[in-house]
Amino acid sequence: MSIWKINTINKFDEFSIQWNLLCKETYDTPLLDAKFIKPLLESFSDGSELLAFAFDDDKCVAATIIKRIGIGRWETFQPSQAPLGCWICHPDYCTDDLFKELASSLPGSVICIGVTQQDPALLARPSPSPHLDTLDYISTGRLSIPDNFDNYWSTRSKNVRQNTNKAKNRLKKEGIAPSIEVINNVNQMQDLVKEFGTLESQGWKAQSGTAVSPDNVQGRFYTELLNAYAPEQAEVWRYLYNDRTVAVDLCLKQNGILYILKTTFDQDWSRYSPAFAMHIEGVNYCSTNGINSIEFYGPAMEWHKKLTDDLRRMYHINFYPLSFIKRIKRIIN
């Protein structure tokens, strides 16, 4: 039986070493490292979240940041800037018993616990039970970096290769030379996030209020995050037409894996698909710079599918301490 210990979220710094030890033992991803979680909390926490660790004797087997989202309803902390819900668990312990103990440890009566956006590459999808259900979420893509770029490119569709070559030829006729820069200098991160925001503010995200800006909470989050990981584990990709930046990626990397957190491009140059071209050049760059794979983590778009066939389905977990609630929900849905 696992015993949960519940803490207020303002104790995260105090328990960050324990959090990181568990992360290293299990998923070993920068997306759940304390260096990622800390700026996420500083930017998007409302202070009501709880920090919970589960122990089997002296062994820490699970950890989560969880918050109440309604009467009796709890869910993992996950702002939209986080690709994964704040849940870490040894695979052998992701069972009904673990969730039952968590439900009994949380304050008040618990009707449902939701664990959002889990990656089957990190935690195998649990089998359903009378108390536990899983729900499909997005398909996301992974691109394994080839040893030989030309061989890889020959496997992509003829239409994609032709359109890419046509765009290159049009640019050449206009006297435009595309190039990619990969930057990891901590002193440049703030300016690069600002540049990212300038490009993103040209598109629909500015109208919806979701664009990154150096003056908004998103801009401050990404600046702080990249500063925390630079220079060893943060990269910003800039794609240029001559001296003009036309696309930018904000990235983290660890264990030979590159994680693309956010992508934007200059709408004025959309006819040339600069973000797609940047990622093609990026594959070539990765093949000679110790990167074995790229994780996109966003919904698999058509341009992802042009680059890779390796897709997997993310999922949510819902746990109901009272099994009849799960049955009622299924009838309603």
Automatic annotation (TrEMBL):
Does this UniProt record's set of keywords contain Transferase? yes
Pfam families given for it? Acetyltransf_6
- InterPro entries in the record, alphabetically? Acyl_CoA_acyltransferase, BioF2-like_GNAT_dom
Write the record's keywords in alphabetical order, separated by commas. Transferase
Domain called BioF2-like acetyltransferase: residue spans: 159-303
Top-rank lineage group of the source organism: Bacteria
GO terms (molecular function) for this protein are:
transferase activity
Name of this chain's protein: GNAT family N-acetyltransferase
Species the sequence originates in:
Motiliproteus coralliicola
